[in-house]
Amino acid sequence: MPETDETNSTLIFFVNGKKVVEPCVDPEWTLLYYLRNILRLTGTKLGCGEGGCGACTVMISKYNHTSDSLRHYSVNACLTPVASVHGQAVTTVEGIGSTKTRLHVVQERIAKAHGSQCGFCTPGMVMSMYTLLRNNPLPSMAQVEEYFAGNLCRCTGYRPIIDGVRGLTFDGQKGGCGKLDCCKLRNSIQHGATNGVSVDVMNGTSSKDEPSTTYEETDISHALHVESEFRIYDPSQEVIFPPELKVHQELHTQFLVFKGPRVTYYRPSSLKQLLDLKAVHDDAKIIVGNTEVGVEVRFKNQLYPVLINSTKVSEITSVTMKDSGIEFGASCTLTSIEEILQDVVKNHPDHRTRVFTAILEMLKWFSGKQIRNCAAIGGNIMTGSPISDLNPLLMAAEATLTLCSKERGERQVVMNHRFFTGYRKNIVLPDEILLSVHIPYTQEDEYLYGYKQARRRDDDIAIVNAGMRVIFEAKSTVVKRIVLAFGGMAPTTVMALNTMKELIGKQWNSSLLETGTSLILKDLPLPPSAPGGMIEYRRALSVSFFFKFYMTVRGGLNQRFPDLVDPLTEEEQRAIQVHEYRPPKSSLLYQKVPSGQTSLDPIGRPMTHTSALKQATGEAIYVDDMPHFENELYAGFVYSNRAHAKIISIDETDALLMDGVEGFFCARDLPGERNKIGVEIHDEEIFASEKVICVGQLIGMVVAKNKPLAKRAAKQVKVQYEDIKPLIITTQDAIREKSYYGQWTIHKGDAELALQNSPHILEGEIHLGGQEHFYMETSSHLAVPKGESGEMEIFSTTQHPSLTQNFVAKALDVPANRIICRVKRIGGGFGGKTSRVLGVSIPLCVAASVLNRPVRKMLDRDEDMQMTGGRHPFLGRWRVGFTREGFITSLQVDLYANGGCTLDLTAAVVEKAMFAVDNVYKCENVLVKGFACRTNLPSNTAFRGFGVPQGTYICEDIITRLSAFLKMDTNVVREKNMYMTGDKTHYNQIIERCTVRRCWDEVLEQADYTSRKSAADKFNKENKYRKRGLSAVPIKYGIGFTKAVLNQAGALVHVYTDGSVLLTHGGTEMGQGLHTKMIQVASRVLKIPVDRIHISETSSDTVPNTSPSAASASSDINGMAVLNACEILLQRLEPIIAKNPKGSWEDWIKDAYINRISLSAAGFHKTPDMMTFDFDTQTGRPFNYYSFGAAVTEVEIDCLTGDHSLLRTDIVMDVGESLNPAVDIGQIEGAFIQGVGLLTLEELCYSPEGVLLTRGPSTYKIPGFQDIPREFNVSLLRGAPNPRAVFSSKAVGEPPLLLAASAFYAIKEAIAAVRKEAGLSPVFRLDTPATAERIRMACEDFLTEKIESSEPGSFVPWCVKV
């Protein structure tokens, strides 16, 4: 198409109030790429690249000249083309506030309310809330939830984020949360639930070893932040919209053409221009928000040479109100449609707007706000996704589409079963565009409803969805016409055509329901190998949705014809209720510091995370935020796409011919042992040499001048394979093939004899699924050669700098003293960045060494998930003997862990799982066998809990099965077998200071367990289609590295002549607040304010031979090392202080310097009395001490869909004398919610060929804002000092994750109620995670009975249980 005089090829927009003029824009650049790499605004983060996590959220402001109005939109910068922001204003986190100037109230609140831990998600959270405030200065909590729905956090558990911004809402300002007069606090004091007194504690010892039973109201605090100290939001102080964008209207009407090396981008300003372009480029992609094309380009390797942005064509963005309905231009965004429909529904009779109401309800769960702000209705239709949320509704409503082409003009088609012709194909001709969508009003005798079930409630794609519409003969209950459209049941959105035909003329009664459900199953067959799996569940959903539709319509008919149609019962009304948002509530209880503690002493106070403010403003620097070196290169990895195969050849020729590619590296560059890594044994290759042993194994690496080029070049490397048998994917495969790394046994007493003599014996099996770490910052590294003596500096996201240092030295064949590993901060780790980072960091160092140039790599989310492994899936087989009174007499457990293709840390994980199979229960006769299975999956590795969750959950499965057999309350069984102080575990370690019973009693009291259990039972008797479950679970967690050598730490303290202190220790900061606690420890010992102490980084050149930041032991061992270093300094200062006792710290330091006293001290600590467990002699002391806790959780399940909600969780956790209650409570909440993800949501799907099918937030679901308990109460056990850790504290990072078992077993209780009512056995197997699929299919009923299952082995499943 010829360019006109009005054509513009220069991009003009504003960023944070500053004008940006870009004459050479590449249409392939996203806004995120431009912000981070061109403008160097790195506060906006790359989390997933597919608009699924919200880390990249920015605000875009648009001025409408026609209406003279300004609107603000939160968008995903990772998907937004920078070309699309022409004439708009972009605001990033750096543009609203800074620690150097002034914080914005949102930044201040999220940070000071402890809503930022690792901090990687924080800028996105800030910008989502900021955008809401710009549009509505006093929003509701429901609006907050809506704007946050597109943001994920892996650390906090969301509660502190919500609490932080609550005060900015209408709900919060009217006293919605009631924190200052906490009824939970009053109740707990009244019942003596949070007992204890403060004790004077120093150096890991306590003045009182025995817990106190004194109850003092003044000893309790429940406020982690003071609301009154926050500034009030003043919208008048916001940055103004750039006047230039208001004045120059031509910026919005120009015909734009941006030409890049591979893609040309057009933005026509008239329909004629658009049709002319489509006539010439009939294969062009028309984009509005780029939400689908952006994903296809990034993850499906699609290249679209021509992109056309249609947002400035008035005919395609207009909205026309007609008598028959509303006609939306195809480029209308979902947000604009939502706003218009809300207004229409408000001002029209209900019966006229039923289709609009259904669309509005569906839009609540349609992705996140960022996506809805950009995505268009036309894109949703034309993309043709078989799980589109809107297409079933539009088909049910028989919406009319207007198509248009230059040659043939306009034509109209009805969106029905003929529209979609195949997977993502439709009847629209290549040169046609979708001009508009007409959505009709409904009539009085017409009903339309929509349904959706997803893995996660908010911001998730559907498993199955539906749009259902029925029209009755006038003033009757006879069906005149019915339309049933389904998504997720075929390669396209489909209709149940035969069902629709057969139901015409029938009365709307139970006979129609029976006929309809049977016919739907025939209309919608799913082959057993269908993509997406869950075959029986998807079919069950199709008829469950119809059942809900039937009842909803029946309710409507009853209102019209009460004499003809029976009303819905209360239980039927509950069955059709849609989910309603309720602002979450919480109470937090912890022990105040003693009245005599000086204000200078920070120990025990809820001090804000030291980096929180920087994280909230985007000033905190992560590895990929570091400025680029002038000659820096970027790495692109070549991965195996086979699980077990011989490498025949590697051909990098085409990649090396690409301009800007500087080299290729593979096993040829690392001969012999230099190519080997491993924690226990060196059994893993950095680059696969002769064969590959999993999909995602690294074969080679391209280095190029930038990231896009490196990625493209890596795809040009050709690898030929020859498959090898056997292919071992699942744990069952490994058992069959006897493919083990090793086997271990722990025995106590005579388990077999005791079993034979037991009055009762049960046996069972449970499979525990794996889990992806999903840290927000993926594995990121920057290798910088120093140019001499083989020296290399690596900036890394490792949790174990010394391990990285040593293996880099080994690969480069230099001594370790030539390698410096630096860690500033890590955007989440959870164990996943302990050993698995080596496969990323070492190749970079190899290339950097050879080329003498810096090399950088940040894994994309799909790369990270595919390459780095996760939590071990476990298979547990058990036998238990017990008495009729419920006492356990014998326990035998076989544990099988799917370790993947290398040993890594699997042996240690299995070992800890074996130690944990007792949880908190005593048994004198135990036999535990552990098997580390070798499979052809990416090597699984450390993950928060490190085997203990698996062992604990298997134990709790035994307890619940035993209780059900005896028809005894599980709590009674637990209490009868619960450990006490002085008892020995099955590995013969004495349990000292056992507080589990205190935690247990307090949480039952705090949760009002007895009365709520009765209430849940009453609810279940009154409700058939919804059930509730209530479960209490106690936990025990051994603290310390089971390998004794790792229980050591070092610290280095420098005091400068101005009195400032630079502190370094061996632990890494990854959000857990370790640096904050270490500063608090140093502050107490040195008796100086915390603002005089600074931690810059963790580095191998300051503290050598560090242990990993893992095993929940970092605060213990590093805290003692810091304490030791500070005490050494104080001892040196004693003579100076004695001479000038009234002097200041600064005076003493100056005098010490003048007197040539060293102001630098190295501290060291080794945990005493620990001994690695010897499986041969069955001796050892693997743990320093134990942490205890207990939780009560209540859930409600939808028996027809499998959906569930956490109604309330109460936790009591023993953290000793808390160093920092805010950090500790944050860890408890975050760990619990991560555990909820493990047990209820997060499901890793592997194909039978070993390909990970869930490689991003679109397919792998971690908990979101809607998944936390509606009421979340956390209490720290008081009066429980721990003399074996610094200042009598206890570890907190991992133990609370185990408490999520209370949610899992509450779900199981609810399912058991369903089954019991149906006459089925309430004793049943439920593997983890308890997904909606597993819940629904366990709730067997008359609908699931209609579904036939395919015989296992008769088909190849889409995914397998590994």
UniProtKB/TrEMBL annotation:
Positions of Mo-molybdopterin binding: Q799, F830, R944, A1111
Predominant place of localization: other
Active site: E1294
UniProt GO molecular function: 2 iron, 2 sulfur cluster binding; FAD binding; iron ion binding; xanthine dehydrogenase activity
Residues holding [2Fe-2S] cluster 1: C48, C53, C56, C78
Classification via Gene3D superfamilies: 3.10.20.30, 3.30.465.10, [2Fe-2S]-binding domain (1.10.150.120), Aldehyde oxidase/xanthine dehydrogenase, a/b hammerhead (3.90.1170.50), Aldehyde oxidase/xanthine dehydrogenase, molybdopterin binding domain (3.30.365.10), CO dehydrogenase flavoprotein, C-terminal domain (3.30.390.50), Uridine Diphospho-n-acetylenolpyruvylglucosamine Reductase, domain 2 (3.30.43.10)
Keywords: 2Fe-2S, FAD, Flavoprotein, Iron, Iron-sulfur, Metal-binding, Molybdenum, NAD, Oxidoreductase, Peroxisome
Pfam families xrefs: Ald_Xan_dh_C, CO_deh_flav_C, FAD_binding_5, Fer2, Fer2_2, MoCoBD_1, MoCoBD_2
Top EC class, one word: oxidoreductase
Span of domain FAD-binding PCMH-type: 258-444
Binding site for substrate: F946, T1042
Similarity field: Belongs to the xanthine dehydrogenase family.
Name of the protein: xanthine dehydrogenase
Source organism per UniProt: Halocaridina rubra (Hawaiian red shrimp)
